[in-house]
Design brief:
The protein contains four helices and no strands. The protein has 122 residues and is mainly alpha-helical. It has one domain. The model has no long low-confidence stretch (mean pLDDT 91).
């Protein structure tokens, strides 16, 4: 397997810069995790999901349904990972799922913005 290229690394850094603070603030505010642990869990969750989403989106036909399925999968996996590191209260699952959805949506929107910026606003 080849090493990831610069585009992948930029996308990963953008994802971490956007999502980790969202997770850290929300998990601390919700008293689910301490800040340091929230940061570590957010990084772990993203390191598990990002390569898979990237592979699905880069290797294959470009389509909105592939994009949607890849991102939905990321939200589900990140929800599970974060929930496993919290108190595992079943009542927290919807809150953690919403948090994963918000974090991933913010990351996608930032990625689109970054893509437009790199492409010169086209």
């Amino acid at each position: 397997m080849a090493l990831p290229g610069p585009a992948y690394l930029v996308a990963l850094v953008e994802t971490l810069v956007v999502e980790v603070p969202i997770y850290a603030v929300a998990l601390r505010w919700g008293r689910l995790l301490a800040v340091g642990r929230a940061v570590a869990v957010a990084v772990l969750a993203n390191l598990l999901t990002h390569p898979v989403v990237w592979f699905v989106l880069v290797h294959g036909p470009v389509s909105w349904w592939r994009f949607g399925l890849a991102e939905a999968g990321a939200v589900l996996v990140e929800t599970a990972v974060v929930w496993l590191f919290t108190r595992r209260d079943p009542a927290a699952i919807p809150v953690v799922a919403l948090l994963a959805l918000v974090a991933n949506t913010a990351s996608v929107l930032a990625g689109f913005g970054l893509g437009r910026l790199v492409a010169g606003g086209r």
